[in-house]
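Collaborator request, handled under Task 6.
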Amino acid sequence: MTTRPNFDPQAGYLVTAAADFINFNDQVFTDYYQPVLGPVAFSLFYALRSQLLDHPTLADRRLQSALLVQVNAGQSQVSEGLRRLEGMGIVQTYFQHDAQGDLYVYELQATLSPEHFINDNLLSVLLLEAIGEQAFSRLAKGAHRYQLVADRTQLKNVSHRFLDAYQIDQHELVHVPEVIKQAQTTAAVTEKHSLVADSSDFDWATLLTLLKSQPVVKEDLADHRELIEVEHQLYGIDEPTMVRLIRGALDLATNHFDARKFKRQVAAQYKQLASVLESANPKQKEVVDDKQLTAKDRQLLKSTNNYAPVAFLQALKEQTGGYVTAGERNVLTRLVQDGKLPSSVINVLVWYVIADLGNATLKGNFVDAIANDWLRAGVHDGAGALLQLKKFNQEKQQPGTTKRFSTKRNRQRMEIRETMPDWSKQDQATRTKKASAAALAKARARQRSNRKGR
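Structure tokens returned to the collaborator:
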């Protein structure tokens, strides 16, 4: 993940736009982006767009506090809104520090076309989860509403090529005029922001081996490899489970892989699979031999090793009566894509925030603060994450120690069935302290009094 300070109202900002921002479509942004972004990020984008100036300069900077007023939201909400806009690739943020202080430049990006949005595996998966299958199918159908509703295989493209219609001076093709060179340098095409992680631990060779005897067109799998690996990253679906999902997404008449059917099937079934999904990297086994870990700690680690992050959060929410929100899925998706923390560490973080601290949901800023603290501390597995929490609790009990994370200790903790260790609920002195003789005598007297009163 990109580490930077939280939203600073006293920092300056400028709003610019990419060269292709002229292709931005408000209807596409509302129909396809808004359900995933949420209301604050959606409003924030239009607040930024209203600040666009022709040929902006550094002297045009304004204080970011003006954005808080315009959006009518707090710092944490605006910070999370920016994170969502950046994650969706609709805003790219640049930073510099100069003589006038910190400056953020927010570059607005054009929307994808409906067809490109639907065909982007990660975006379409998030949209499907946000709006449901029926609304998603309606949008997918609308993306092709102007295309011919008929078999196009008999149509032959007879369009003229460029040089058939236009004559160009060959000399100018070889010796490009200087004015064109300058314009091309100014309008250099920038690389699009990637939404998908660069690598995956998914065992593709094993998947192909398991599918070898299945009636599936192998070229289809190669064409949709990115989609399959995105679903694996989001839900930790292992290779055998993926084989079953792929079989269920085959066209029975042609044996071709139906990508849309596959997306709908995963979205519909992931809650049912949550209790049996394996970790995103089941082959990695953590060696836990530290004497500071209790039996319940080790039991918790088994749970964190056997679930992917989304599935683990879903299991926690089912036990505590909640549900996984779209925002929480986005938080976990960012952590998984970043790749700096393994799934077991992310699961311990989820347990700490939801079960141990008793928070109702995962908040992006709070989760990022803990994740960055653990990265600095060199945490690389679930056991290390638990030990880091123990160290934090011990430091917090020492006089004069400043709390790094705000907690909600004033309300009763939630207890998760058997998997929740109790080391963070009592210190060592409280657990080992023996009752005095006077206290035991008072307790026996109360028992005798209660029996007489019955």
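The cover message to the collaborator said: "The first strand starts at residue 12 and ends at 17. Confidence is low (pLDDT under 50) at residues 272-289, 406-425. Please let us know whether this matches your experimental observations."
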